[in-house]
Amino acid sequence: MPHPCFEALHLDYAYGGGPLAVRDVSLTSTPGTMTALIGANGSGKSTLIRMLAGLLRPRAGTIALDEVPLKDWQPRLRARQIAYVPQSTATAFPFQVIDIVLSGRAPHSARLRFESARDTEKAMEALENTGAAHLAGRPFTGLSGGERQMVILARALAQEPRLLLLDEPSSSLDLKHRADLMRTLGRLRETQRLSVIMITHDLQLTGSFDRLVALRSGEVAAAGTPDEVLRDHLLRDIYGDPNVRTQRMGNRTVVWVDL
Amino acid sequence: MTAQAIPLPAPAGDRAVRAMTVLTLILIVSVAVGLAVGSQHINPASLFSDSFSRTLFFRLRLPRVLMGMVIGASLAVTGGALQALFRNPLADPYTLGVSGGGALGASVSIALGWSARVAGIPLVFAASFAGAMLAVSVVRTMARTGMVVLPGALLLSGVAVNLICAAGVLTIQYLTDPGSALRILRWLMGSLDVVGLDPVLRMLMVLAPAWLALLAFSRQLNLIAIDEDTAATLGVNVRRCEAIVHALCALIVGVTVSAGGAIGFVGLIVPHAVRRMFGEDLRIVLPGSLLLGAAFLVLADALARAALPSSELPVGAITGLLGGPVFLWLLRRRQEYSAM
Asked: Which has the closest alpha carbon to B94: B139, B142, B144, B151?
């Protein structure tokens, strides 16, 4: 197993003086691996990924990138390594899509410079990768939730990170764009050894991942390959529903709930 | 499949050059109008021959136009920055209570008769800056819960701070001696009246560096205006950027208010107009607001001077009459701004 480039150990987090929202969670990511975070609503997935993105400071535990603590990284240099896509983005001003994607180049260009032609190329390439090139000239505020998702994802790709943190990117994407997303991530994993940590409620997608980490009440309930985690008894426990069923179909596992 | 229905905008660098060219031309025309309008007609040729015309021009009219430029530019650029920072198109020094705080600070120092200067910089500037800083801190604390700035709370606390400050100014006027009270009143109405170039130069000593510092944050403000979380993951130290931009805005507004009174809505209309003309990129909006703000206030002041045959209107009244309706119109169009 290759050496982990990103390692989170024994993370705890609590909002204000409340109970722990994340408790003793450890997670590693090696170059070119895709990890899915699953779990019920409120199980601490978003809190965890926000800690990994450096947006929340863990109450206990360490996060290290290339063995240097995340908080010791200079923000701009860290931004060249890790990109983050939030669940949704609401912008008050009608920025144009291409400008938003171009802003993903910020960590790579000098502070007082405008983006170069090369940056524009990278931005367009990223938009093509997410199937959103046709939106380039549109105002962001006029887009649907799914279109915005694709644009913000393109922005994160234009950032050229080694590790991509995605908070439910597929939630508002249609069937085709979900497939496009997975294809794009798979391709970037092959060509650029991109690592991905992605929250998802769509268990059908998780077959494409190397590793699944399931959270329940802020703790890791199960972790392993999709085959190891996508099992009836584990999923019933993770989602707290006794009617979850799984079945192997060819080389993938289908999950559903009996109503 | 809609194939490339909408053409791509020109690169930001090209757009910036075009924007600055257009806005500089507008500014030049405005300055020419501002210099030409006044109770006394000054014939350009007479500047060389007639010493009265020369004095009138260089001691009164030119300083006044420069004052208008400096104050207009300052209010507009802070408006643009505050709108981005709070992700709210209705934010401006006036609506957020920053001007009010500055006015209160300045009133205190006028009432106490602080006319001293430190290193050529009047103490009124410092008092006004302190008031503006206090106001922006209160408004920010009220509106921010964790990572979210609540737009309603932002504007409401701005209104509340403005009312408190106005009440404070009234109290000071009531308690102080009639001379100071009158000076406060005249100054509050907002005027660009100034004699000689010195006051303008003293302001520029403080303002020009602050403008440039603010412009240096354009890109960070772009990222914050799009989304605060992703700004942080794109390498912006959001909290630090916020604190510095707040302080710079308070400084600029404080100095502006202490010199020209509370002139409303310039910071609201001008950045909005620049965005309409040249797009949302703050690397264009902020310098563009400097230029258009300067032009706008010079024109508003020319209008204030020319509106009545025998006397002049306070320039604050003109900007308020123009800006109030624009504010209401923006409020009406809120649905265009999804985050509100």
From this structure: B139
A98–B225 C-beta distance less than 8 A? no
**Is B191 a domain residue?**
yes
Between CA B310 and CA B308 the distance in angstroms is 6
Enter the tokens of residue B297: 């206030």
For chain B, the domain total comes to: 1
The verdict on a CB contact (< 8 Å) between B216 and A55 is no
Domains, chain A, ranges and CATH? 1-81+161-259 (3.40.50.300), 86-160 (no CATH)
ipTM of the complex: 0.90
CB B250 within 8 A of CB B136: yes
- Within 8 A of A99 by CB-CB distance, chain B residues are 9, 12, 279-281
Are B275 and A93 inside 8 Å of each other by CB? yes
Q: Which of B230, B240, B337 to mutate to test the interface with A (most CBs of A within 10 A)?
A: B230
The enclosing domain of B194 has a CATH number of 1.10.3470.10
Q: Do A137 and B88 touch (CB under 8 A)?
A: no
Report the gap between the CA of B3 and the closest CA in chain A (Å). Answer: 6
- How big is the A-B interface in CB pairs under 8 Å? 124
Confidence of residue B198 (pLDDT cuts 50, 70, 90): confident
Mean pLDDT by 10 residues, chain A (259 residues): 79 90 94 94 94 94 93 93 91 90 91 84 92 91 89 95 92 84 90 93 87 94 91 89 86 83
Indicate yes or no: CB of A90 within 8 angstroms of CB of B4.
Answer: no
Q: Determine, yes or no, domain membership for B44.
A: no
Cα–Cα dist B134/B161, whole Å = 10
In a domain, B162, yes or no: yes
In a domain? residue B173: yes
Domain that holds residue B162: 56-320
